[in-house]
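On clarity, I found the account of how folds are encoded harder to follow than it need be. Since the whole study asks how a given chain folds, the encoding of that fold should be made plain. For illustration, here is how one protein appears when written out as sequence plus structure tokens:
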Amino acid sequence: MINRTIKPEPSEEITFHLPKFEKFILKNGLTVYFIKRNQLPILGFNTVLNAGSKYDPAGKKGMVNLFSLVIDEGAGDFDALQLNDEFDILGSNFDISTNNDNIFLSLRTLKENKERSLELFSAVIKKPHFKEEAFAREQRKVLTRILQLKDDPEELANIVFENQLFGKENPYAYPVIGMEEDVKNITIEDLKHFYSNYFTPMRATIIVTGDSEKEEIEQLLNKYLGDWNTKGIFTNAEISNRENEGNIYLIHKEGAVQAEIRLGHISSGRNSEDYFSKMILNNVLGGQFTSRINLNLRENKGYTYGAFSRFNYYKDAGYFYVSTSVNAENTGNALREIFKELNEIKEGATTEELDFAKSSLIRKFPSNFETNRHIASNISALVIHSLPDAYFDTYLDNIKKVTISDVNKSAMDSIHPEKSLVVIAGDRNVISSQLGEFGRKIIEIDNPAA
């Protein structure tokens, strides 16, 4: 009989080998990372372009998002429906997405159909139609989605938090989807202008994973993308941060049973020297289920199903935040406990917490490279944040060498409850009376998704 009261110990250390990549440059200057994986006859082509929504012009927030929705609405010899059918016939999956920093184009195809799939993929990149009717259709969809966001407290809290955190002069202050009046002002000519100036090989990197050889991939990419020679412009987005005043911003949602809470402040960027100590610090504070914030608000107090914290990193900015959703009657109680945890972590973590956080990060590291998509995502991080090619080779060593002094220093340097702004989306009739004890200016926000 097995005694299930005794926790089993691991029998041996798991041997894990990082997937290796080969790096080369096409004849047009496009950088390629290739990772061979022959477990399945599948290939993935993932293109990362430094051309995200931070490049939206003033008064036209949401342009890059709309661009990414329109660029595959017909390309080369095919209209939108024909192009979609061609991918379907091949069993290939093609997708485009946008975030604040980048546009991502991904193609997943069977090995036997790689050349035809790549031909279609290249048509979207080099020969998009940009038809007026497709543009008008996608613009209407975006405007409908923005209207839907106005009824979503979770999305509203996220939008207002970043808007107030960064300030209106910072492009990271605006949602990727854009603002209603701005989206109405965007024209098809704006998309064509953006394509000519920002959708260029010099802003792009392709990550290829799967069952092939480097020589074959280089030959195919040169064949179908080697003549992609849009010159474009090379200006970067202007990023400026501001000091926050620690205000509470209240978004009124009549009758809302829950209150969405976001709390945080500007922090150092992704390439800061204390990145790994901050990672471990956050694991202790709010980065996993057994962290202090979640155990307090969920397990001890029963205010929420989950509460977490995170250091969030854009290419040119970083911030720390806490996020949770609680019953509206417990908004003040939840805020009080969050501030309590932020203040107490500055008094120091324990060696037990340090060891547990390290163990958690080290043991889950191999799972970050299980699939082609996982690998492509991690290589994308190297590209986006200009990390060294050997970054993952030294990853575990960098975690292991973090000391309790490093973590405690990061807590003092990087956690600032007094500077943290607070955003709450919920019913002010229930929430307002709970906020007086915090001694902060309360500002009501109307129509934040406009």
